Amino acid sequence: MGLVLVSLSILNFLAPLLLLLFFLPSTSRSQAAAPPPPFESQADFEVYLGHPCLEILSFPFYTCCNTFCVTCPFSKLCPCDDTLCGEEVPPLSVASKEAFRTYVSPLRDTAGTIEAGNSQSEPPGLTSTFNAKTGGVISLSGYQTFDLVYSFAPPYINIRTESPDIHYKASILSQTLSAVSQRYPGSPVSYADVGTSNGALLHVASVAGASPILGVDHDVEYARNSEAAVTTLHAYLNVALPFPPPLSRPLVVRGNLQTQPSGLADVVSCFALMHWAYSATASFRNLDGLVGHMAKLSKKATLIQWIAPSDSAIQYLNHISLNGGSTEGPDGYNEENFVKALNKHCGGVEDLGSEDGRETRRTYLCWGSK
Question: Which helix (H) or strand (E) holds 360?
Answer without folding.
Answer: strand 358-369
